[in-house]
């Protein structure tokens, strides 16, 4: 009987100098390819534990594509601020002899990443590839030869055919959070061309090929170490992800993975614990998740399946916390109601009450006797609850005199919806069955009170519960992630949320 008080969160109901070219190539796989790749992978890659998942998450190819678009756009802006290190060297140039050269003050004029792709590597993680990238730069050159002769000028440098490929693996760190690392990287610079301005053209044309070689070598040596470093630098961001999401002062929900992510050719599937706990006390409920599988769908970026286990674990937690109870007094009854919570009104149904306790106000205590149970059936969510209603007469000195105790079983329908990055719900009373537990005023017909208690549940208890449920409970998320184009389906034993994602 879902008179589970405002505390019921049954929501049924995240080169240094030479470190140039990619130094900030922190491969802005952060944000979204960080999202796609890992965001959801950010919901923790724990080792297999053999425990069934309460929540499952699927990142589709559409989700990865969104990550690529944002990641590449961010990467392009980042690369524009790269500082190319000064380069210098000495080469033997016939017939002059040794020529010392230096390239300094190199600045980016233009940068393009026209072709990139993100893909899935089965059983491993995600791959990112960039091809035909180009960078146009401008800088200064200086040479010295024959020990005393110096010359200088400016140059334009074009890097073309730049390609990078990296594979990112994900595993669990010792805090239960995801940790990423590069499991493979390749990089190459297709061509480097320089056009010199000023100075003696015959001279710099002689050592031009050496400059090309030096730039190509310097860049290719830097790229993969920098990409690996960029991947490692995602880990501090991943450490900001909450292993536990606090719901309120009573409960928190855990989204750690119960097995390694399953990476296929078309999606990344994550199995999360999805279990409510009392804050600071992780006691397991006397039930476990029913195995379920997400159906093949790919029209959205992200799919989240929440089994009935998750809200049922919430019921267990709140029942353990002793907060599934509610005192009802007359001032909580709508003023328009002809029914008042006093011995006169109840005396009309139970004459003994009016005779033994004339002219007194009453108080009701509604509480559960065990955790409520939620059931998901196709297009239907019901909540079964068992509880008691204890009626008291309020004496002039404020002491309470017990009148009777009713055993109550109720069936409630729940409407579930997504709001922001939370799941929320509202309840509607379906069926109510009451039997007499204890009477302190003699025997009476419980059936006569049926309409009275239906009114109390509908007018007082359920609105209180709904006000709480409307606050929702958090879904797995990372950073400033918003859900858009969201659809929710109720299936057998779980609900399925299909959604696209937008990062603000």
Give me a quick take on this structure.
This protein is α+β, with helices and mostly antiparallel strands and 504 residues long. It has helices at 29-39, 61-79, 201-232, 235-238, 309-320, 343-347, 351-356, 450-469, and strands spanning 55-60, 87-93, 97-112, 115-121, 125-145, 149-172, 178-188, 191-197, 244-246, 251-254, 262-263, 267-272, 275-278, 302-307, 325-328, 362-368, 373-377, 380-394, 400-419, 422-439, 473-474, 481-491, 494-503.
Overview of this protein structure:
The chain has 504 residues and is α+β, with helices and mostly antiparallel strands. It has a domain at 61-238: Bactericidal permeability-increasing protein, domain 1 (Super Roll), CATH 3.15.10. It is built from 8 helices and 23 strands. It has helices at residues 29-39, 61-79, 201-232, 235-238, 309-320, 343-347, 351-356, 450-469; strands at 55-60, 87-93, 97-112, 115-121, 125-145, 149-172, 178-188, 191-197, 244-246, 251-254, 262-263, 267-272, 275-278, 302-307, 325-328, 362-368, 373-377, 380-394, 400-419, 422-439, 473-474, 481-491, 494-503. The strands form 4 sheets. Strands 2, 3, 4, 5, 6, 7 and 8 form a 7-stranded antiparallel beta sheet that branches. Strands 15, 16, 17, 18, 19, 20 and 21 form a 7-stranded antiparallel beta sheet that branches. Strands 11-12-1-14-23-22 form a 6-stranded antiparallel beta sheet. A hairpin with a 5-residue loop joins strand 6 and strand 7. Helix 1 packs antiparallel against helix 2 (61-79). The longest helix is centred in the middle third of the chain and has 32 residues, at 201-232. The protein starts with 28 loop residues before the first helix and ends with a strand.
